[in-house]
Amino acid sequence: MAYRIELTKTSAQEIRELPGHIRQRARRLVDGLAENPRPAGSQELRDLPGRYRVRLDRWRIIYRVDYDAELVTLLRVRLKTGPETYEALED
């Protein structure tokens, strides 16, 4: 079962601004979410049910999975700086 991938305007911009070697890996990881929205190493965010993060070096790819609609929505791609990394996530 293949999920559709949807990028928010913010997440698309953040991917474009990533360093080149990280950007390529991020795109491959996001494409892989279509086949497996819960890859090894992904974690559901503690205070935000239905939202997940996957690590990419020091970066975090934060996304939401809608299992009924078979949709993965990429919310943010951020450098891990602390708890504020997961604040103010748009829907």
Explain what you see.
With 91 residues, this protein is an alpha+beta fold. The protein has one domain: RelE-like (YaeB-like fold, 2-Layer Sandwich), CATH 3.30.2310.20. Helix content is 23%, strand content 32%. The chain has helices at residues 9-16, 20-32, and strands at residues 4-7, 43-44, 51-56, 59-66, 71-79. The protein has a 5-stranded mixed β-sheet. It is globular and about 30 Å long. The two termini are 24 Å apart. The mean pLDDT is 91.
Features:
91 residues; alpha+beta; YaeB-like fold; five-stranded mixed sheet; 2 helices; 32% strand; globular
Low-confidence sequence ranges:
none
The CATH first-level class comes to Alpha Beta
| Anisotropy-based shape | globular
CATH topology: YaeB-like fold
Q: What is the name of the CATH architecture?
A: 2-Layer Sandwich
How many helices? The count is 2
* Class from helix and strand fractions: alpha+beta
The CATH homologous superfamily corresponds to RelE-like
Q: How many domains make up the 3D coordinates?
A: 1
- The gyration radius over C-alpha positions equals 12 Å
| N-end to C-end Cα span | 24 Å
Describe the sheet with the most strands: 5 strands, mixed
Helices and strands, in N-to-C order? EHHEEEE
What's this, in brief?
The protein is 23% helix and 32% strand. It is α+β, with helices and mostly antiparallel strands. The model has no long low-confidence stretch (mean pLDDT 91).
How do the helices and strands line up, and which of them pair or pack?
Blueprint lengths: L3 E4 L1 H8 L3 H13 L10 E2 L6 E6 L2 E8 L4 E9 L12
